[in-house]
Amino acid sequence: MEAGRYAAANLDGYLMPTIADAPERSRVLALEDLDPGDPYGPRGIGELGIGAVTPAIAAAVADAIGHWPCVAPFSPETLLRALGNGAAA
Amino acid sequence: MSAPRFRLNGCGGVLPDDPARSLLDILREDHGLTAAKPGCRIGRCGACTVLMDGRPVNACLVMAYRLEGAEIVTADHPEAGPEVAIVREALIDENAFQCGYCAPGFVLALAALFGRVPEAGEAEIRAALTGNLCRCTGYASILRGALTARDRLRAARGAEAAEPSAQLPR
C-alpha cells in the first residue's frame, strides 16, 4: 500500500505463484502435540480473523459518510454515488 | 435483447444489446449462472474460465460480439460431459480445494485438457493449469486431484471399450 492505495491494483502488476511454481512433491504433517499447559488446543488463524475485517471497514465507511456499503469491495464509484444520493460528506 | 444466437449449456443463450458486454457479465447477470467467478477481470486468474467451442477461455475477456454462433459450456452445466463429471468428482475426493473460488475454472481447464490429451502427464497438466490461480492450496492437492481424474477417465474409457453399451457416467 502507498498512501492508502494499492501499489499493485491487479494481477498484471503482481506476480502470483502458479501451479508451475509448486514444489515437485510436498508432504503435509499435522502437529498433534499441544504445548504444555495449553488449555484450549489447536486454534485456527487466517480466515477466522479475516471475517471481522470487512464489516469493520464497512462500519468505518458508514461512520465517515453515513452510507452502509453492502457489497464488497467498496469501489470509489459506489461510494461517490452514495455521496451523491445525499449521504452526509 | 435479441434472439438467441449462441449455445449456452445446451440451450439458446441470449445476447445483450451491448456488443462489448463481457461474457462473464452475460453469464452471471443475464443468465444467473454463477459458476464462472469474477476475479481479476483482466484474464490473469482463470476464475471465470468457461469452454468456448470446447476450449478454455477467460469469460471476462470474451465480448458479446464474439459469441455469434459459439458453443459455451460453464461449470454450472449438469450435463457438461463425462470429462467434467469425472474431473469434478476426483477433485472433490482428493480435497483439492479449500475456499473453492477457483474450482470451477480448474475443473473446466482440466476437462478440456483431458478431452484433448487423455494421457496428459504431470508436466502437461501443470502447463495447462498455469492460467488458473489458487491462493489457498499451494496447488499440491489440485495436482493430486488432476492425476486421479486422469486415471479415472482412463478406467472409464477402458470400461466403455470393453462394454460398448455402457455409457460414461454423466
Topology:
The complex is a heterodimer of chains A (89) and B (170).
Chain A: H1 47-50, H2 53-65, H3 76-84
Chain B: E1 6-8, E2 11-13, H1 23-30, E3 49-52, E4 55-58, E5 71-73, H2 82-93, H3 103-116, H4 122-128, H5 140-162
Helix pairs in contact in B: 2-3, 2-5
Overall description:
The complex is a heterodimer of chains A (89) and B (170). Chain A has 89 residues and is mostly helical. Chain A is 29% helix and 0% strand. Chain A has three helices and no strands. The mean pLDDT of chain A is 85. Chain B contains five helices and five strands. Chain B has a five-stranded mixed sheet, covered by helices on one side. In chain B, a hairpin with a 2-residue loop joins strand 3 (49-52) and strand 4.
Strand content of chain B: 5-15%
Summing up helix and strand content along with how strands pair, one would put the structural category of chain B as: alpha+beta
Fraction of residues in H or I helices of chain B? 25-40%
Q: What is the molecular shape of chain A? A: flat
Distinct helical segment count of chain B = 5
> How would a crystallographer describe the biggest sheet of chain A?
none
Pattern of helices and strands of chain B: EEHEEEHHHH
Gyration radius of chain B, rounded: 16 Å
| N-to-C CA distance of chain A | 25 Å
Radius of gyration based on Cα positions of chain A: 21 Å
Q: Which spans of chain B have pLDDT < 50 for at least 5 consecutive residues?
A: none
Biggest sheet descriptor of chain B: 5 strands, mixed
- Most extensive interface: pair and counts? A-B, 13 and 21 residues
**Assembly classification:** heterodimer
